[in-house]
Amino acid sequence: MATKELTKLQSALAIASFSSGVTIACCCLFIVPPPGEISNSAISIVSELLVLAGAILGVKTSFDIKFRKFEAELRHKADKTDSLY
């Protein structure tokens, strides 16, 4: 149950980070004068938010893959042990 809550939290954080990055980029592109120009600081913030979203999802995916591999190894060893008896 805790992993489902963690997964939901990670997904929510990734979506919020991505949405914030897109919102900041759109505001800087269309609302903040001069229109059509994004300042370097806005580009920096947007890139950091997008990297954060990718890192959150990447860490989750990496953890899930390693956990499944570890679980499969444990099952394999348990099956070997059961077959000996």
Account of the protein in words:
- With 85 residues, the protein is mainly alpha-helical.
- The chain has one domain (2-84).
- It has helices at 2-30, 40-84.
- Helix 1 (2-30) packs antiparallel against helix 2 (40-84).
- 5% of the residues are buried.
Figure out the total of helices.
2
The first-to-last residue Cα distance is 34 Å
SSE string: HH
Instruction: Please provide the count of β strands.
Output: 0
Largest sheet, in brief, is: none
pLDDT < 50 runs, ≥5 residues = none
Shape: rod-shaped
Report mean pLDDT, rounded to a whole number: 81
Query: What is the radius of gyration?
Result: 21 Å
| Fraction of residues in helix | over 70%
Q: Estimate the strand proportion.
A: under 5%
What can be said about this structure in brief?
This protein has two helices and no strands.
Relevant terms:
mainly alpha, 85 residues, 0% strand
Write the layout of secondary structure elements.
Elements (H helix, E strand, L loop, with lengths): L1 H29 L9 H45 L1
Helix pairs in contact: 1-2
